[in-house]
Amino acid sequence: MSSLENQLLSAIKSQNVSAINALLAAGADPxxxxxxxxxALMEACDSWHxxxxxxxxxxxxxxxxxxxxxxxxxxxxxLFSCVIAKDANLIEHLLTRGANxxxxxxxxxxxYDWAEFDYRYDEYDLxxxxxxxxxxxKSEEAWLGYLSRLASKxxxxxxxxxxxxRRAGALTGREKQITKQAEQGGGGNSLKRVPHL
Length: 197
Known about the structure:
Layout: H1 3-13, H2 17-25, H3 40-45, H4 51-63, H5 78-85, H6 88-96, H7 111-124, H8 140-154, H9 160-167, H10 173-183
Helix pairs in contact: 1-2, 2-4, 4-6, 5-6, 6-9
């Protein structure tokens, strides 16, 4: 690893946006990966960074040519890092810059399914304060409406980042399975949500 890349990773860790810009202008590789396979962009997306600085770092790296679709050897990528941070603005920015909401996840399930589970775990410890209605279970969008209503009613964080993923075309595992069956000529089943509750 060159001195520039070492300095770039250090600048990201300290959230020094001006240093990041200077290092990129000096030729630091925006697609550099550390010894664990995490890209500079993944490091910038991590949850411990200040949200405003996180977005500025990500913009600088993307403007310098960082790959928004990079995934490490385990299948994790920049969107996974953003989901952990629950940063809807950053997710939307990455999606407009080419990140694929259906490409990555390192635990054998779609990123969206993991993110939805993680939201319920973090906000409610998987114990929802109200049961969903049949209408709430009709589609993923209805489910997100249910989660949004609960968040408002019980003072929880809204599922904005889940909504951003869905707007960008993120599919549930069930939807991926149905799409694959349809592509193989096997038709498809109803897209009614299969709740995880």
